[in-house]
Write a structure and sequence with these properties.
With 204 residues, the protein is α+β, with helices and mostly antiparallel strands. It has helices at residues 2-25, 52-63, 146-152, and strands at 76-77, 83-84, 87-96, 103-111, 118-127, 133-138, 154-159, 167-171, 182-187, 192-198, 200-201. It contains three helices and eleven strands; from the N terminus they run ααββββββαβββββ. The strands form two sheets. Strands 3, 4, 5, 6, 7, 8, 9, 10 and 11 form a nine-stranded antiparallel beta sheet that branches. The protein has a two-stranded antiparallel ribbon with strand order 1-2. A hairpin with a 6-residue loop joins strand 3 (87-96) and strand 4.
Length: 204
């Protein structure tokens, strides 16, 4: 009888010890593959009337849409009406904000002359589409979040006309270009930076 009791106690001791050893050592010999999509709304500010899932769904739906635009460079005229070439001032290349929000192409600020003011031109441009994207001139070289934009200060030039293609945006005359350091493509409702082009003085 004592023998069977000792065997039973041994089993009760061995089972949890063996389970613990397996739990501890099994990751060394087993592969557990996981492939999750990047969370689209990882940096989003969720509106009060939406859930995170609804934000993810809205951004995913917009990302699957293409809105191409192909605008020509506007002509510039001097005071005597003669045609002059726009002069490039600041320029930069768009880059990805993260592994989902991607951007490429160039951003250039052009001087159209005393009569024409300044424009921002995007060329060979492509960005992940999203809900209500806006074009911002920002007083910081590499803003990554909504708080970065608020801290630095920015001017909104309007809604992004298309997520693909060349396009022009008028720059208001009261904007100090000496303060502008980057162009940002920004999702307005969810406050997410999609792409940034750091601007430097153009040499071309």
């Amino acid at each position: 009888m004592l023998r069977y009791l000792l065997i039973g106690l041994g089993i009760l001791i061995v089972i949890p010890v063996a389970w613990f050893a397996w739990w501890l050592l099994s990751p060394l010999v087993m592969t557990n593959e996981v492939n999750e999509d990047f969370p689209l709304a990882t940096r989003a500010v969720v509106p009060a009337n939406m859930t995170m899932t609804e934000v993810e769904d809205a951004m995913a739906a917009a990302a699957n849409l293409e809105r191409p635009v192909d605008e020509a460079m506007p002509d510039s005229s001097g005071s005597a009406g003669s045609q002059t070439q726009p002069q490039a001032g600041l320029s930069g290349q768009f880059r990805d904000a993260d592994s989902f929000h991607k951007g490429s192409g160039s951003a250039t600020v052009y001087d159209l002359g005393s009569e024409g003011g300044h424009i921002l031109r995007l060329e060979d441009f492509r960005v992940t589409n999203g809900p209500d994207l806006r074009v911002l001139l920002v007083n910081a070289p590499n803003p990554e979040s909504h708080s970065d934009l608020d801290d630095a200060g920015y001017i909104e030039l309007g809604k992004l006309k298309g997520n693909v293609g060349s396009q022009n945006y008028d720059i208001p005359a009261n904007v100090s270009l000496a303060d502008v350091q980057s162009v940002v493509i920004y999702c307005n409702p969810f406050r997410v930076v999609f792409s940034v082009a750091t601007l430097e003085t153009s040499t071309g």
